[in-house]
Structure formats: C-alpha cells, structure tokens
Amino acid sequence: MGPAHDLTEDSSEAELVDAARRGDHGAWEALYRSVYPGLRAFMSRRVGTAHVEDAVSETMTRAVAGIDRFELGPVGFAGWVYGIGRRVAADHYRRAGRQARQEEAAVRGIDPDGPAPLDTVLEGEDRAAMRAAFALLSADERELLELRVVGGLSAEEVAAALGKRAGAVRTAQYRALAHLRRILETEGGEDA
Fold first, then answer.
1. pLDDT, tens digit, for every residue of 37-49?
2. Which residue, among 7, 53, 55, has the nearest Cα to 29 in the 3D structure?
3. Among 35-44, 88-97, 99-108, 157-166, which stretch is predicted with the lowest mean pLDDT?
4. Domains, in order of start, for the chain
5. Fewest 10 Å CB contacts: which of 9, 80, 156, 190?
6. CB 92 within 8 A of CB 55
7. Reported pTM
C-alpha cells in the first residue's frame, strides 16, 4: 500500500484498514465516509438528534483507538463500528440516568454525593426502631426498598427484576417510603 494519495474509492476494505492501522489519514477518511451516513442514522435512532454528532464522534474515536484489535471478518468494518456505536449509546443512557437521578436528588433536597437516603435515616434514627418499622411493611414494599434503597439498583433495573414498568417502581417506592415514614412517626412503631 502506497502513501495516502494512492488510496481510492476502489481500495478494498482490507487495504484501507491496514493503511489506517499504520496511521494513514486518507484511509481513515475513506473508512469514515463509508460508514458515516448509516452510522449517523443508526445513532440518531439510538440517542436522538440532539446527541447524535457527539455519539458518532465518540464511536469513531473508539474505533481509532481500537483499530489494532480489529480483525476483518464477515461483518466488516461497518459492523464492527456499529457494535462500538451500540456501546456508546448504552453509555449515553447510563450517563443520562445518572444525571436524572442527580437532578431528582437535587429537587428533593438530597445531596447526590452525600450518604444514601437510607444511610441518613439509619444514622438519625435508632436502628432497632428502623428494623421494627421495616418489618411492618408488606413483603412487596420490603423487597422493593431492599432493591432500590439498600441494593442501590435503578428503577429500570428493579423493573426488569420484578417484571414491572420503571414508572410503577418509582410510584411504589414513593408509597413504600411514605408508609415507612408514617410507621416511624407513630408512637411505638404501630402501623398508621
């Protein structure tokens, strides 16, 4: 393979990948141009138009960083890049979920970097009273709070585990915590 100016639209994918591994900018440009339209459409459906350019850029950055590990197979370069794109989209949703939880904590007046809500409650309340109040919750309420608050799972993860919708999990968590609060506020831990 010659210098970058010898690369043409007719160069084989294997030749382009080999040249890209050697740092040939012309090969990278040809590979990028070959996947960009489809990758952009794919990522747009995955992360939305507001984030598509960042997602495509991150996908190609990871491709450049990982080209030495790429082996040309039946799915070709495009298939490999789309696989990277799927992981970029998953990372995008994890970050968005984390940001949403932090925003929700801010709205509720909880320090997202501080102790977890249950830790705060346990530090401020007698542990025996908390255990007694927790025991008065229904089995479903206990399970939900154990998964969400104690286990630290997201509403989506709990929903998948329990076969429910994430919105239903959030609503049930709110109700279970309100029930727990009512129990703790009554004298002697009697159910309200």
1. 989 988 888 888 8
2. 7
3. 99-108
4. 4-99 (1.10.1740.10), 115-189 (1.10.10.10)
5. 9
6. yes
7. 0.50
